[in-house]
């Protein structure tokens, strides 16, 4: 039982270390800040300052 708990914690730690973390430059490029909405006719319009 203790081995299972230790193995689970170690595997979670390994995934946390291996997970890619986006730095500020990448996160700024991924969030381009454009919000859009669609009406009943299917026309897409940009939502300003969202």
Overall mean pLDDT stands at 78
Kindly state the percentage of residues in helix: 40-55%
| Uncertain runs | none
* Tally of DSSP helical segments: 2
- Order of neighbouring strands in the sheet with most strands: 1-2
Helix-strand category: alpha+beta
Keywords: Signal
How does this model look, in words?
The protein is an alpha+beta fold and 50 residues long. The protein has one domain (2-47). The protein is 48% helix and 16% strand. It contains 2 helices and 2 strands, in the order H-H-E-E. The protein has helices at residues 2-18, 24-30, and strands at 35-38, 44-47. The chain has a two-stranded antiparallel sheet with strand order 1-2. The model has no long low-confidence stretch (mean pLDDT 78).
Key phrases:
50 residues, alpha+beta, 48% helix, elongated
């Amino acid at each position: 039982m203790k081995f299972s708990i230790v193995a689970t914690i170690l595997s979670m730690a390994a995934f946390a270390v291996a997970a890619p973390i986006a730095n500020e430059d990448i996160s700024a490029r991924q969030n381009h800040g454009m919000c859009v909405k669609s009406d009943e006719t299917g026309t897409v319009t940009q939502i300003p300052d969202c």
